Amino acid sequence: MNECDPDLKRGLADFAERRGRSDSLIAEAAIASFLSPDAHERKEAVIGKRLDRIDPSIQRLERDVGIANEAFALFIRFWLNSTASLPEAVHAAARARGGERYDKFLEALGRRLATGPRLRQEVPEDMESNP
Fold first, then answer.
1. Which of 89, 91, 108, 117 could form an S-S bond across to 121 if both were Cys, CB 3.0 to 4.6 Å?
2. Alpha carbons 119 and 124: distance in angstroms, whole number
3. What letter would DSSP give residue 1?
4. How far apart are CA 99 and CA 64, in angstroms?
């Protein structure tokens, strides 16, 4: 029989010590649990609990992505409706000015991300129930 993995053996010993039980008793219980016919149901219950904890995070993520999409769409619509086309003669100057404005935008975005508040914090949680 091969020698047990040292890390596994150390982990078993640490766990047994924390529980105040012998290594062999912990190993026996683990093997019995693994071979138990209801082991699948217990694993499924544990996974279910983990998924229940993940679900609110996913809901917040969906909400945040929805806010970002709507904010972006609103900005694009506003920008397209309020920005006039420029004559060809001023395109180069406009591009240069646009680059400067973009750099300032990135600086402002960096500050906001570093210090807050975030847009999602400014939008009420119950936005869908408020028409």
1. 117
2. 10
3. -
4. 28
Query: Is residue 72 in a domain?
Result: no
pLDDT in tens, 27-77: 898 888 778 778 778 788 888 888 888 988 899 899 889 988 999 999 999
Q: How far apart are CA 106 and CA 87, in angstroms?
A: 27
Contacts of 123 (CB under 8 A, 6+ apart): 67
Contact 120, 64 (CB under 8 A): yes
Which tens digit of pLDDT belongs to each residue from 90-104?
Answer: 989 999 999 999 999
- What is the count of structural domains for the chain? 2
| 98 is a domain residue | yes
Q: Which two tokens stand for residue 36?
A: 């138990």
The pLDDT score that the predictor gives to residue 128 is 56
Tokens at residue 43, please?
């694993």
- Which residues span the domain enclosing 114? 89-124
